[in-house]
Every structure is written in structure tokens, then in C-alpha cells.
Amino acid sequence: MLGLPWPRHGFADSRSLRERADAKGLVFGCAVKSPQLGTDMPYTDLIATQANMLVHEYELKRKNVEPSPGQYVFAGADKAMNFAADNGQAVRGHTLCWFQANPDWLEDALMVPVAQREQLLISYIDRVIDRYGSRMQSWDVVNEVIEPQQADWNGMRTDNPWWRALGERHIDIAFHAAKEKAGEAKLYLNDYSVENDVRWNEDRRNTTLRLLERLKKRDVPIEGYGIQGHLKPYRDRFEPEVFAKFLRELEGFGLQVMVTEFDVADVDGPADPAERDADIAAVTKSFLDTALDSPACAGVLCWGITDEYSWLSDLEKYKRADGTKTRGLPYDDQYRPKPMWDAIAAALDAAPARVPT
Ligand code: G3I
User: Fold this and answer.
1) Are residues 280 and 3 in contact, defined by beta-carbon separation less than 8 angstroms?
2) Is 335 left (phi over 0), alpha (psi -120 to 50) or beta?
3) What distance in angstroms lies between residue 231's CA and the mean position of ligand 1's atoms?
4) Under a CB-based contact definition with an 8 Å cutoff, are residues 266 and 278 in contact?
5) First to last CA, the chain
6) Do the Cβ atoms of 148 and 205 come closer than 8 Å?
7) How wide is the angle at C-alpha 131 spanned by C-alphas 130 and 133, nearest 5°?
8) Tell me: the pLDDT tens digits for 153-177?
9) Is the Cβ atom of 20 under 6 angstroms away from ligand 1?
10) pLDDT at position 8, please?
11) Distance (Å) from CA 59 to ligand 1 centroid
């Protein structure tokens, strides 16, 4: 048992997570998979009632959007955008530039003179933002660019086709291209494993802060930092003060912050689901209390809403050895709320209200 058993909050009212977030001027939302929208009705209902912001889990990535050079496919992304519009929800765009989920043709296409490589990045950003720009609250312009365990002196991710093609400067190019088109949408850099009290997360925090200093010096128009928040409490210890210090450092850059992909992997946790649920709820409350105490933090999106569709249960390194589903989202695989739901609700209720901007 990591934390004290989470007492199920007897909430005095039956407000949804969306209503609790709205009451504080906070974001609470989740990633969506469009095939399930409108076909899996319990799922559709949870998405509509619990979230005031959505993000595409995979359909707004270049592999899905541009399967062949210049051939754009927006059907999946449009479906989630239209659902959000029908339900009065905001959307964040994930993601314009990433080392993963690129179409198979991209690597070869980058074997061209530098100016044409830049154009391969800029033209894609232009095309996607042209389609959705005014409807996005924010964009993950660049996703997961650091990797201190690789060979770059600055701790940048070198197994990244964009870093190989253009160096660190690909970040500048992407943000300037986005800034030309994105209107009021905030431009985010998004990354993972910057929240825990373990050495390799500390290295990632320091690498991130040094990168932000360089980007600011180069007048790169970065306006937000996304903390993905994929917690793994049975592997990496969460210590609120360590995370709070990093949030203060991000505030120092004048950035908006958001927890963008929150979930809790219970791999290596106890066999009893009730025990894992209590531990997950305890770390959820501690993590979200810390995040929402930061005046820079606009809110939280979970990486899904129900364990039924969590990526955590699909991945070898996070799958549970006993074959049971990961219990890392607010609703279980039967769409029932869990103590994690209570913890999120309690954190939203306890958070300082945001002044309407
Ligand atoms: O739905 C199609 C299915 O119809 C098709 O038969 C199958 C064949 O490939 O693909 C299915 O789509 C898969 C999709 O997940 C559906 O779940 C894609 O192949 C697969 O690539 C996609 O993986 C996503 C992954 O990013 C890569 O885009 C995961 O869902 C998504 O959870 C994961 O999310 C990432 C964030 O973007 C960045 N942070 C880490 C996070 C977890 O890896």
C-alpha cells in the first residue's frame, strides 16, 4: 500500500467532473478515440458529461492525417471536432511535430536539401492549422523532444527524424510556423516523466529547463508547457514538493501549464484491485492538488476516460502480469466510477478558482 486507503468521498452533490471544473474556471477533459464516439453509447455519454475539453488520442497525428505525401485525411479528427462542437467542449490539438506516428514515407522524403526539409514541416503545420486553427484552445506544436539518455550534449532526443533533418532548430521552425496561423490558440511544448522524485525525471526536468532558456533566448513563440502526467507510482515515487518546485520554475518562464495526458499505471501493484484503486486515488489527489495549486496550471486532461480503452493495457511495459486491465482512469472497464474519480473531483473542488481571462 503506497498511501492511506482513500476514503470514498461522500460528495454532497452529484456534479460531474466537467461541472466541478467549470465552477473553478479549470479545464478537465480527456483524450478520445473517434470510432467509439456515437457507437459505444456509455463511452459517448461519459465523454459528453465529464469533459469540458477533448484531445485526439491518435487521429490528429501525421501518420493518420497524411498517409501519402499531400493526401490529407481528416475524417477521424473531424468527427471528434464535431462532437466537441455539438457538446460545447474545447479541443486541444495533439500533435503537429513528433518523432513517432509519422507516415512511413516521411524519412525518405526528408533526404532533400535543408530548405525542402523545412518546407515538409511548415506545409504540414499550415495545412492542419488552416483546417482547425480557430477552434483549438492550444496545440502541442512539438511533442517529446528531449531524451537525456541519448547522445546529444543538450539532452535532445536524437532518434527523432526532425532532429536529424534540422537539428534543435526544428522546434523554432515549428513554433514560428504555428504562430503565423494559430490565432488565439496557445502554443505548447509537451513532454513526459518530469514529475517524479527519481533521478531520471530530475535529469529530464533540468534538460527541459535548459531547453526553455534557449528557446526563450531565440524568441521562439512558446506559450505553454504540457506535463503528460503518466504516473507509475509502483515504479517512480511521486513527491509533491519536487513537482511543485518544477511548476514554480515553469511559472518563471511565463508559460501556461496543463496536465495533458494524465493516467496512473498500476503495473507492479498489489493483486487486489481495491488496494490498487486506493493507492491510485491517493497519488491522484496528491499529484492534482500540487498541479492545481500552481496559478499557471489551466487544468487536467486524462489520457482516456475508461479503463476499457486505455493504452496502458495494450503496452508490454505497462501491462499487468496477471492479465487484468490497468485501472488508471476515472472509470473502470464497466464504465463505473472508481476512487480515482473521487480523487479528481476532490482535487477540482479544492483547487483555487481561476480568474476568468
Ligand atoms: O484504430 C486502428 C485500427 O482500426 C487499426 O486496425 C490498427 C492497425 O494499426 O490501428 C488502430 O489505431 C491505433 C490507435 O492507437 C488506436 O488505439 C494506431 O495503430 C496506434 O498507433 C495508436 O497508438 C497511439 C499512440 O499514441 C501512437 O499514436 C495510442 O493510442 C496513444 O495512446 C498514444 O498516445 C501517446 C501520446 O500521443 C504522446 N504521449 C504518450 C502517449 C502514449 O504512448
Assistant:
1) no
2) left
3) 19
4) no
5) 41
6) no
7) 65
8) 999 999 999 999 999 999 999 999 9
9) no
10) 53
11) 8
291-333 residue pLDDT tens: 999 999 999 999 999 999 999 999 989 988 888 899 999 999 9
Cell of 28: 478537465
Q: Which atom of ligand 1 is nearest to the CA of 311?
A: 32
Contacts of 40 (CB under 8 A, 6+ apart): none
How far apart CA 276 and CA 326 sit, in angstroms, is 10
Residue 6 pLDDT grade (very low, low, confident, very high; cuts 50, 70, 90): very low
Output the residue whose Cα is nearest ligand 1's atom 18.
58
Which ligand 1 atom is at minimum distance from the Cα of 58?
Answer: 28
Q: Count of residues for the chain?
A: 357
For 191-240, what is each residue's pLDDT tens digit? 999 999 999 999 999 999 999 999 999 999 999 999 999 999 999 999 99
Task: Give the whole-angstrom CA distance, residue 205 versus residue 208.
Answer: 5
Is the CB of residue 195 below 6 angstroms from any atom belonging to ligand 1?
no
Q: Which atom of ligand 1 is nearest to the CA of 94?
A: 37
CA of 162: how far to CAs of 117, 145, 156, in Å? 9, 9, 11
Amino acid at 168: E
Q: For 185-228, what is the HEC assignment?
A: CEEEEEECCCCCCCHHHHHHHHHHHHHHHHHHHCCCCCCEEEEC
Inter-residue contact 198 to 236 (CB < 8 Å): yes
Strands (E) across the chain are located at 27-32, 53-56, 90-94, 138-143, 186-191, 224-227, 230-231, 256-264, 297-302
Cα(201)–Cα(184) distance, integer angstroms = 32
Residue 356 has what pLDDT? 66
* Ligand 1 pocket, mutate which of 58, 99, 264 (most atoms under 8 A from CB): 58
Cell (9 digits) for 117: 526539409
Cβ neighbours for 92, distance < 8 A, ≥ 6 positions apart: 53, 54, 55, 136, 137, 138, 139, 140, 188, 258, 260, 301
Q: Phi-psi category of 38—alpha, beta or left, where left has phi over 0 and alpha has psi -120 to 50?
A: left
